[in-house]
Write a structure and sequence with these properties.
With 1533 residues, this protein is α/β, with parallel strands linked by helices. Helix content is 33%, strand content 17%.
Length: 1533
C-alpha cells in the first residue's frame, strides 16, 4: 500500500525563485525535490527549515537534505531528496550550487483540526464559521446562551473578535491590554480569567463539536494603553522617528484650525462649524493655503540655513586658500543632506564638494566674495527645489483633508458627523498629544525635548492602494505628511524594528499575548494582516505553533494581487484566506466565485498518487458577509440572505457568516459603536421577542440545514463543482462525489433587488438535471409573516421579525411545493435526465436535490470500479462485487498481459499510420482535431497525458468520447481482429468497455482514462520484465527510452527481412492467414517513424546497425539482434551490406559504411551476449553467393558467419568496383550517371579503407541534390569520398577484434589473401592493424603546429587541433571541415588517438558543434553552414534548395551519443576535474533528451532538429539510432 502514498514532485530549476508561488500540501504527504533539466549533473544541495522528526521548528535553522537515487545509476533523472510532511505551518526551502543560492520558495502544510470528545477530524472544507463581536456577548455567565445560537444554527467554528480589555474608543480592535481578559465580562460577584474562557472553549469543542478562534492584533494598541506610556519606544514617536516632525506640526496646526472652526472663529471667512456645501469646502482649501501653510513653514524642515552655510563656506575658503586648490569631481554635485534630527533649517551640504566646485580665481577678497555669492545662489536654488517638493506634498495633503471632510460630513454613504466639534474634529488627529492646551508655537518647543516628544505617537490606519510590503510609518514614506492615512484615532501604531533586539519589551509582550491565545483557542485570525510587518507575524506565529502545532490561521488580505497574497500565505502559513460574497455585484459573479474558490470540474480525471506539485490558490474561507462590512440587507434585500448564503455554502471550501446575518439584522453591527448584546437561544421564543431567537427567526432554520449539508459534502468528498447560471437571478451549484457519483444540486433564486419594489418574472426556466433525483434535501422560501415590523431594540441586537423561511427537509419530488412537475427524458441509452418545471421558485427561494446515477448506470460504475481496484485501491470506494461478469474479467489483467511478447506489445502500444495501413487499418482520427500518432494505446495515452493534469474536459478528444462509442470500439476491435494474446487483451478491454458504455457520457472520459492507464502501465511493466537487468534496474529515463525498442521493432503483415536459414534454431514462425502456411516472422527494425516505418523503406542497413546495439543488445533482445544480423549477412554482395534492404531482392549496395557498422554490431554482440561468439558459427543463407547470381531461396547455400566476415575483409583488400544494377532514374531519379559507379578498397600504404567519387555519397551524410532551379540536382552535398574518418575507425575496430579472435582460436583466419599483379599476396590482420595505427594520427590530426611536415595542404586549414572529416577527398577542402564524425572513431577505436589531442579536438567540437539535442553537422564558421532544413523549399540558393543542407548544419541526434561517449572515455584519462566536468555535461545534455522524450506525443527522440534545438517538421519524430545512441551513453554511465 506504500505505493499509493500521496507523493508530490517539485522540480528545481536554476534561478527559479518561487517566493510568490503557493504550494499547498497536507500532512502525511511526501514531498520530493528533483533536479530539473537546468540542474542535472550539477552538485546541488537542497536546504529546508522543515525540522527533523521530533525536533522543534526554528525558522532560521536550515538543514541540508540527503539525495536518494533509487536506481543508483549515474543519470540524475530519478534522483530526489524528500520530506515526509507531518507538521503544519509554512516552511522554506532553497538550493545552492557551489555554495551560491540558485532558487527557492515555500511550502505550506495544512493543519489537521479535531472536534468532539472522540477527536474526529474536521476537514478544512467542512468548516462553517460564525463571527461574534466579543463585547456584544455580555457577561461571561450569559455567553453560553448567546453562543448556543451558533451551535443550533449548525456552525462548527466560532470566531471571536478580541476578548482583551478595550481602549477608550470601545472599538473591538483597539486593545488597551493584550494580556488581560476584558473586565466587562466579569460580574460584581465573579472575576473571570483566561482559564474560564479556556474551559468554555474546551466544552464547546467536546460537547458541541464547535471550535473557537479569535483575532490577534499586532499592528497597534489603544492610545490609552498603560504599557505604551511606560514603553513609548514601542510606538512611532518624534524621538525614534524624527522624520515625522513636519507631519506632527501640520497635524497640530489642523487641530488648532478645527478648534477655531468649532468655536465659529472662521464663520466670517465663510467656514461655519456645520459644513454643508462645496463652497464651504473651497473655503477650507483657501484657509489651509493662506493661513496654515505660511504660518507653519514646513519646508524649513528640509532646507539649509543660507547665511550660516555661506559663513561656514567663507571661513573654509580663506583657510583653504592657503592650501592647494582641489579639482572638482564632475559626478559629485552639491546637494542637500537631510538633518537626521529634522530641525528647522538644520540641513547641510557637503563642504568638500562645495570647495571643489566653487574655486576663487585668486586669494583676493573680491574673488572670495564672488565665489561666496555663487555658493549662496546655488544653496538658494537647492532650497527652492525643496520648497517646490513641499508644495507638491501640501497639495496632496489638502486634497486628502477635503476628501476626508467630504466623506465624514457630506457623502450620502458616509457617517454624516454634523458640526465640527472637539469630539468630531475637522479631520482625525494623526498623533497623540497628552498635554494641556497651549498655542501652536508653545507646542512646537516640545518637539526638541525628548522627555515630552516621546509621547507624541503616530496613530495607525490604512492607506488606499499602498504597497502592503512597505511600512508607511518608516523613513522614506510621506504618508503622514501628505495626509494619505485613513486614520484610526484610537490606536497607536507599534514600532517593532527589524528584530527583537530593536524593541525587546514590545516583542516579549506580543509573544506572551500570542501564547495566551494559542493556549486557549484552536486558531487565530490575523487582523489587518496586509499591513502587519511580515517578520513580526512570522515570529509570533512560530511561537503560537510551538504551543499549538495544528493552529488554524485565517486572514483577510487587501493586497489587490494574488501574487502578493501568496507572499503573506507563504511566509505566515495562512491556512485559509477570507473571501467575501458581498464583493459580487450580481448572481453571476457570485457563482463564479464559488467555482474559483474550490473544487474541480465534474467528471474530472483521477490523478496519480505520484505527480508534480502544482501552484495552488490559497484555501478559501468563503463568507457571505464579514463583520466589518456593510449589511447586505441595505445593499441587496432581506430576501437575498437565504439564496446567497446557500450559494456560498455550496462552495467546496470553508464557509462562514457573521452573527446578525441569519437573524436579518437590517444594519451593520458596528465594531466601534455597537454596545447592545446579541440575542439568546430560546426554542420557545415568540417572533416579537427582541432578545431571543430560535429556528423560526430569520433564516436560522435554513442555515442549520445548509450548514449540515456543507459539512456532509466536505466530509464525504463531494469535491467536484459545476456552476450553472440558469438566468440572471438563478444560480444552480452542483457538488459531485467522484467516488460514489452522487450529486447535490442547489438551485437558488437570488434577490439582489427587493422583490417588493422590483420586477421579477413569474416564468422560471425549466432545468434539466442528469440522473435520478433521490430526494429533495431541502426546499426553503423567504416569506413574510404577520408580526410587528422591525424596531431597533435598545438592549439586544434584533433582526427583522416579520421575515422568516418556510422550510421542508428530506421530501420526495411529488411532495415539493416548488417543483410543479418532473419529467424523465432519456438523453442516451443509459442516461436519464430529469426535466424540472418550477412553480414557486420565488426570489429568495432555494431548492436542493440529491441526485444519483440511474440504477443501471450506478451498477455499471460500481462494476468498473471493482475491476479497476486491481490497478489502484483508490477505486475501492463505490465499487460493487461482481458475479455475472464476462469470464475474461475474472482473470487479473496482469495474467493476460504476461503472455504477450515484445513484438505483440509493438502492435498493442505503438504502430504509426503507415505501419497500420499495411494491415488495412489506420490511426484513429478525431474530427476537427487530428489523428492520433499511434494506433496502439500510446496514441491515446499521449493525448490523455496532456489533458489529464489540466482536467481539460473541453478537449476535442473528450468531446469525441462523450459524443459516441467510436473511439472505445476502435481500441478493442483493433486488437480483437488480431490473433493470440493480443486478441485476449482486446477482449478484456471490450468487456470493460461494455460497462463503460452504460455510464453517463460526462463520466466516460474519466473512466476510459482509468481503464487505459491501468492496462497501459501493466503492459509497460510486462515489456520491461522481458528486457535486460540494465533496463529493469534502470532509471525512469532508461526505462522510457528502452520502450523505443518496442516502438521500432515489429512484425508487419509482410516480412521485411530476408528469410533465415531453415537450419538456424529458435527462429519465430507464424501461420500465414491467406496461404495457411507456416512462415518466418522475425522482428525488423524500423529506421524511424513515421517516414521510415513500412514497405521497402522500413529497413536500412546503415540505420539498423548504428541502432542495433542500443535498441536490441543493451535492452537484452539478443535473439532478435542475432536474427537481424544474420538476415542482413545473407544479402552480402560485392563485399557490402545493402543500404536500402528492400527485403534483399530490391537491395541497393550504394553505401560504403553499412558493412563496417554490421561488423561493429557482430563485435558488440559477441561481447555483450552470453556465449556471444557462438554467432560466428551460425549458418548464413546466402542470397547472392556471387556478385551476379540471382537471389537464391533460403537454405540453398549456407555458410557460417565467420566465412562471410572473411569475405568482406578479402573483398575490401582486393578492391571493390561495380556499377549498380538497373542504374538510372528507375532506382534514383536524381543521381548523375557516374554516381552509380561504386568503388571501395584499402590503401596499401596506410591501411585506410577508401572509396566513392564526387557524384555519390557512401556514408550516412547522403543528401543528393534535387533542385533544377538551384542547379544542384545529381550533385551530393557531402560526397565524403576518400577515407571517411568514422569508416577508418570502424575498420580499425573490426581488424583489431578479428586479430584478438584469431589469437583465441575463435576466428579461423589471421590473414587475407589477395591478388596483386597476378600473384597471391598475404596480408595479415596484424600488419593491417599496425598500418592504420601508424598512419591515422599523422594524416588525420590537424596539428596545432603550422609547420607540421605531415600537413600536405596547410592552406586549407581553418581550425587547428581537430581531426579531419576525411582523408584524400576529391575536393581536398572537404577533408578539413569540422564535423561530428571523428568522435565515432574515438569510441570504436580509441587506441588511434593521443588522449591530449583527442581531448582538445573534443573541446573544439563541444564549443562549435554541440547543440541542444544533437550535434551540428557542420562547423557554423563554414561558409556553407545553414542550420535550418527545409526539404520543400525550392529556390535559387545552391546550398539550401530542396534541403541540400540536410547535413550542412542541422543538429542530428545520434552523433551526440558518440560525442558524449568519447568525452566520457577520454575524460577518465585527463584527470578527476575533467571527468567531473564531463559528468556534469553528459547529465545536463541527457536531461534535455529526457524532457523531450517526456513531452513528445511520439514518446521518442527525433532524427534531427534545426539549429539551437528548434523543431524540424521534415525530421522523423522518433528515430531508432537517436534513441539507441542515448541508451548507449546511459549504459556507459
Amino acid at each position: 500500500m506504500g505505493h499509493f502514498k500521496q507523493v508530490r514532485i517539485l522540480l528545481l530549476n536554476d534561478m527559479e525563485k518561487l517566493e510568490k508561488t503557493l504550494f499547498r500540501l497536507e500532512q502525511g504527504f511526501e514531498l520530493q525535490f528533483r533536479l530539473g533539466p537546468t540542474l542535472q549533473g550539477k552538485t546541488v544541495t537542497v536546504y529546508t527549515n522543515y525540522p527533523h522528526p521530533g525536533e522543534e521548528f526554528s525558522r532560521k535553522n536550515f538543514r541540508p537534505l540527503a539525495w536518494e537515487n533509487p536506481t543508483e545509476r549515474e543519470d540524475d533523472s530519478d534522483k530526489y531528496c524528500r520530506l515526509n510532511l507531518q507538521k503544519a505551518g509554512s516552511f522554506q526551502y532553497y538550493f545552492t550550487q557551489e555554495n551560491e543560492r540558485r532558487g527557492g520558495g515555500y511550502i505550506v502544510v495544512d493543519p489537521v483540526l479535531h472536534v468532539g470528545a472522540d477527536n474526529q477530524v474536521l476537514h478544512l472544507d467542512c468548516v462553517t464559521l460564525q463571527t461574534f463581536l466579543a463585547k456584544c456577548l455580555g457577561p461571561f455567565d450569559e455567553w453560553e446562551s448567546r453562543l448556543r445560537v451558533a451551535k443550533e444554527s449548525g456552525y462548527n467554528m466560532i470566531h471571536f473578535t478580541p476578548l482583551q480589555t478595550l481602549g477608550l474608543s470601545r472599538s473591538c480592535y483597539s486593545l488597551a491590554n493584550q494580556l488581560e481578559l476584558n473586565p466587562d465580562f466579569s460580574t460584581p460577584n465573579k472575576q473571570y480569567t483566561w482559564s474560564d474562557v479556556g474551559q468554555l472553549v474546551e466544552k464547546m469543542k467536546k460537547e458541541w463539536n464547535v471550535l473557537c478562534i479569535t483575532d490577534v492584533v499586532y499592528n497597534h494598541t489603544a492610545a490609552n494603553s498603560k504599557w505604551i506610556q511606560e514603553h513609548p519606544e514601542s510606538a512611532y514617536n518624534l524621538v525614534n522617528s524624527p522624520h515625522l516632525k513636519p507631519a506632527w506640526v501640520l497635524d497640530r496646526a489642523l487641530w488648532h484650525l478645527s478648534c477655531d472652526v468649532s468655536e465659529g472663529k472662521y464663520k466670517e471667512k465663510g467656514l461655519p462649524a456645520l459644513i454643508e456645501n462645496d463652497q464651504q469646502m473651497n473655503c477650507i482649501r483657501k484657509i489651509v493655503w493662506e493661513d496654515i501653510y505660511p504660518k507653519i513653514q514646513l519646508w524649513e524642515f528640509f532646507q539649509v540655513d543660507v547665511n550660516k552655510a555661506v559663513q561656514q563656506f567663507r571661513a573654509l575658503l580663506i583657510q583653504e586658500n592657503r592650501k592647494t586648490v582641489r579639482k572638482s569631481d564632475p559626478k559629485q554635485l552639491l546637494k542637500i543632506i537631510q538633518d537626521p534630527e529634522y530641525k528647522r533649517l538644520g540641513c547641510t551640504v557637503d563642504m568638500n564638494i562645495a570647495l571643489s566646485t566653487f574655486i576663487p580665481h585668486n586669494s583676493g577678497p573680491a574673488a572670495i566674495d564672488e565665489c561666496c555669492n555663487w555658493f549662496r545662489k546655488r544653496i538658494e536654488e537647492l532650497n527652492a527645489e525643496r520648497l517646490r517638493q513641499m508644495n507638491y506634498h501640501q497639495e496632496q495633503a489638502v486634497n486628502c483633508i477635503l476628501g476626508n471632510v467630504f466623506y465624514e460630513r457630506l457623502a450620502g454613504h458616509g457617517p454624516k458627523l454634523g458640526p465640527v466639534t472637539r469630539k468630531h474634529p475637522l479631520v482625525t488627529r494623526y498623533f497623540t498629544f497628552p498635554f494641556g492646551e497651549m498655542t501652536l508655537a508653545e507646542e512646537e518647543t516640545f518637539i526638541n525635548r525628548p522627555d515630552k516628544s516621546c509621547f507624541f505617537m503616530a496613530h495607525n490606519g490604512w492607506v488606499m492602494g499602498d504597497d502592503p510590503l512597505r511600512n508607511f510609518a518608516e523613513p522614506g514614506s510621506e504618508v503622514y505628511l501628505r495626509r494619505e492615512l485613513i486614520c484610526w484615532g484610537d490606536s497607536v501604531k507599534l514600532r517593532y524594528g527589524n528584530k527583537p533586539e530593536d524593541c525587546p519589551y514590545l516583542w516579549a509582550h506580543m509573544k506572551k499575548y500570542t501564547e495566551i491565545i494559542a493556549t486557549y483557542f484552536q486558531g487565530i485570525r490575523l487582523d489587518n494582516c496586509h499591513s502587519t510587518p511580515l517578520h513580526v507575524a512570522e515570529e509570533m506565529l512560530a511561537a503560537a505553533r510551538s504551543v499549538r502545532p495544528n493552529l488554524y490561521v485565517i486572514a483577510e488580505l487587501f493586497t489587490g494581487s494574488e501574487y502578493l497574497d501568496n507572499v503573506f500565505v507563504n511566509r505566515l502559513g495562512i491556512t485559509s484566506l477570507i473571501r467575501e460574497a458581498m464583493s459580487a455585484y450580481n448572481s453571476h459573479e457570485e457563482g463564479r466565485l464559488v467555482y474559483r474558490y474550490g473544487g474541480e470540474p465534474v467528471g474530472s480525471f483521477v490523478q496519480p498518487c505520484l505527480r508534480p506539485l502544482v501552484p495552488a490558490i490559497a484555501h478559501a474561507l468563503f463568507m457571505d458577509i464579514t463583520h466589518d462590512n456593510e449589511c447586505p440587507i441595505v445593499h441587496r434585500s432581506a430576501y437575498d440572505a437565504l439564496p446567497s448564503s446557500t450559494i456560498v455554502s455550496m462552495a467546496s471550501c470553508a464557509s462562514g457568516s457573521t452573527r446578525g446575518y441569519d437573524e436579518l439584522v437590517p444594519h451593520q453591527i458596528s465594531v466601534v459603536s455597537e454596545e447592545r448584546f446579541y440575542t439568546k437561544w430560546n426554542p420557545d421564543a415568540s417572533p416579537s421577542n427582541a432578545s431571543e431567537v430560535n429556528l423560526q427567526s430569520g433564516i436560522i432554520a435554513a442555515r442549520r440545514a445548509i450548514n449540515k449539508l456543507h459539512q456532509e459534502l466536505g466530509a464525504k468528498g463531494f469535491i467536484q463543482v459545476y456552476v450553472d447560471q440558469v438566468d440572471e437571478d438563478i444560480v444552480a451549484v452542483t457538488r459531485h462525489s467522484p467516488s460514489i457519483h452522487q450529486s447535490v444540486v442547489a438551485v437558488s433564486r437570488t434577490a439582489f433587488r427587493n422583490p417588493k419594489t422590483s420586477f421579477y418574472s413569474k416564468e422560471v426556466p425549466q432545468m434539466c438535471i442528469p440522473g435520478k433525483i433521490e430526494e429533495v434535501v431541502l426546499e426553503a422560501r423567504t416569506v413574510e409573516r404577520n408580526t410587528n415590523p422591525y424596531r431597533k431594540d435598545e438592549n439586544s441586537i434584533n433582526g427583522i421579525p416579520n421575515i422568516t423561511v418556510e422550510i421542508k427537509e428530506h421530501l420526495q419530488l411529488n411532495e415539493s411545493k416548488i417543483v410543479k412537475q418532473a419529467g424523465i427524458a432519456k438523453k442516451g441509452p443509459n442516461e436519464y435526465v430529469q426535466e424540472i418545471e418550477f412553480e414557486n421558485l420565488t426570489p429568495g427561494s432555494v431548492i436542493i436535490f440529491r441526485v444519483s446515477l440511474d440504477p443501471h448506470a450506478q451498477v455499471a460504475v460500481g462494476v468498473l470500479r471493482s475491476h479497476l481496484t486491481q490497478f489502484n485501491p483508490h477505486f475501492k470506494t463505490g465499487s460493487l462485487p461482481v458475479d455475472n461478469a464476462d469470464p475474461i474479467l475474472k482473470i487479473p489483467f496482469v495474467s493476460i498481459a504476461s503472455k504477450l511478447t515484445l513484438a505483440d506489445l509493438n502492435q498493442l502500444l505503438y504502430r504509426c499510420e503507415s505501419e497500420e495501413q499495411e494491415d488495412g487499418g489506420g490511426c484513429y482520427n478525431i474530427p476537427n482535431w487530428s489523428s492520433l500518432k499511434y494506433a496502439g494505446l500510446q496514441g491515446l495515452m499521449s493525448v490523455l497525458a496532456e489533458i489529464r493534469p489540466k482536467n481539460d474536459l473541453g478537449h476535442p478528444f473528450c468531446n469525441n468520447l462523450r459524443s459516441g462509442d467510436w473511439m472505445i470500439d476502435y481500441v478493442s476491435n483493433r486488437l480483437i481482429s488480431r490473433s493470440g494474446a493480443i486478441a485476449e487483451v482486446g477482449k478484456w478491454l471490450q468487456a470493460m468497455f461494455f460497462y463503460l458504455k452504460q455510464i453517463p457520457r460526462y463520466l466516460i472520459p474519466c473512466y476510459f482514462d482509468a481503464i487505459l492507464i491501468g492496462a497501459y502501465t501493466t503492459l509497460l511493466d510486462v515489456a520491461w520484465n522481458q528486457m535486460s537487468s540494465f533496463v529493469q534496474n534502470g532509471s525512469t529515463f532508461v526505462k522510457h527510452l528502452s520502450l523505443g525498442s518496442v516502438q521500432m521493432c515489429g512484425i508487419g503483415k509482410f516480412p521485411s527481412l530476408p528469410l533465415l536459414s531453415p537450419s538456424l534454431p529458435d527462429v519465430p514462425y507464424r501461420l500465414n492467414e491467406v496461404t495457411r502456411e507456416k512462415e518466418q516472422c522475425c522482428v525488423s527494425l524500423a529506421a524511424g517513424l513515421p517516414h521510415f516505418s513500412s514497405g521497402i523503406f522500413r529497413c536500412w542497413g546503415r540505420d539498423t546497425f548504428i541502432a542495433l546495439r542500443g535498441i536490441l543488445l543493451i535492452t537484452g533482445r539478443y535473439l532478435e539482434a542475432r536474427n537481424i544480423i544474420l538476415a542482413f549477412s545473407g544479402t552480402l554482395r560485392h563485399g557490402l551490406i545493402p543500404n536500402l534492404l528492400g527485403e534483399g531482392t530490391h537491395a541497393r549496395f550504394n553505401c560504403r559504411d553499412a558493412v563496417w557498422w554490421w561488423l561493429q554490431c557482430i563485435q558488440d554482440y559477441c561481447k555483450l551476449v552470453p556465449n556471444g561468439t557462438d554467432i560466428l558459427k551460425c549458418p548464413v543463407s546466402r542470397m547472392y553467393p556471387t556478385d551476379d547470381s540471382s537471389p537464391l531461396p533460403a537454405g540453398t547455400l549456407d555458410q557460417p558467419l565467420y566465412e562471410v566476415i572473411q569475405e568482406v575483409m578479402q573483398r575490401h583488400l582486393q578492391g571493390i568496383q561495380f556499377r549498380e544494377r538497373n542504374a538510372g532514374p528507375q532506382i534514383d531519379r536524381n543521381m548523375k550517371d557516374e554516381g552509380f559507379n561504386i568503388t571501395a578498397g584499402v590503401d596499401d600504404q596506410t591501411g585506410f579503407v577508401f572509396g566513392g567519387n564526387r557524384f555519390n555519397c557512401g556514408t550516412w551524410m547522403d543528401k543528393m541534390g534535387e533542385s533544377d532551379r538551384a542547379r544542384n540536382r545529381g550533385i551530393p552535398a557531402t560526397p565524403r569520398d576518400g577515407s571517411a574518418v568514422e569508416i577508418v575507425g570502424l575498420s580499425k575496430s573490426a581488424i583489431r577484434w578479428l586479430l584478438e579472435l584469431s589469437k583465441r582460436n575463435l576466428f579461423p583466419y589471421h590473414e587475407v589473401t589477395v591478388k596483386r599483379n597476378g600473384k597471391n599476396v598475404k596480408i595479415s590482420y596484424e600488419e593491417w592493424n599496425r598500418k592504420i595505427q601508424d598512419h591515422f594520427e599523422k594524416l588525420f590530426h590537424v596539428s596545432e603546429d603550422p609547420s607540421d611536415p605531415n600537413e600536405k595542404r596547410p592552406d586549407l586549414v581553418h581550425k587547428r587541433g581537430i581531426y579531419k572529416d576525411s582523408y584524400g577527398a576529391s575536393s581536398p577542402w572537404c577533408d578539413y571541415q569540422l564535423r561530428p564524425n571523428f568522435p565515432i572513431a574515438m569510441v570504436v577505436a580509441p587506441e588511434l588517438f593521443t588522449p591530449k589531442k583527442a581531448w582538445k579536438a573534443l573541446e573544439i567540437a563541444e564549443k562549435k558543434l554541440l547543440g541542444t539535442l544533437g550535434m551540428k553537422t557542420l562547423d557554423p564558421d563554414d561558409m556553407v553552414y545553414c542550420g535550418v532544413y527545409d526539404n520543400s523549399l525550392d529556390n535559387d540558393n545552391y546550398n539550401i534548395a530542396r534541403g541540400f543542407n540536410y547535413h550542412q548544419g542541422p543538429e542530428w541526434l545520434w552523433p551526440i551519443g558518440y560525442f558524449l561517449r568519447a568525452k566520457l572515455y577520454f575524460s577518465k584519462l585527463m584527470g578527476q576535474e575533467a571527468y567531473f566536468q564531463t559528468m556534469f555535461l553528459v547529465k545536463n545534455v541527457l536531461s534535455r533528451h529526457y524532457v523531450h522524450l517526456e513531452r513528445s506525443p511520439w514518446k521518442g527522440l527525433p532524427e534531427l532538429t534545426n539549429e539551437n534545438g528548434q523543431y524540424c517538421s521534415f525530421s522523423c519524430e522518433t528515430q531508432a539510432w537517436s534513441i539507441a545512441a542515448i541508451l548507449e551513453i546511459l549504459f556507459d554511465l
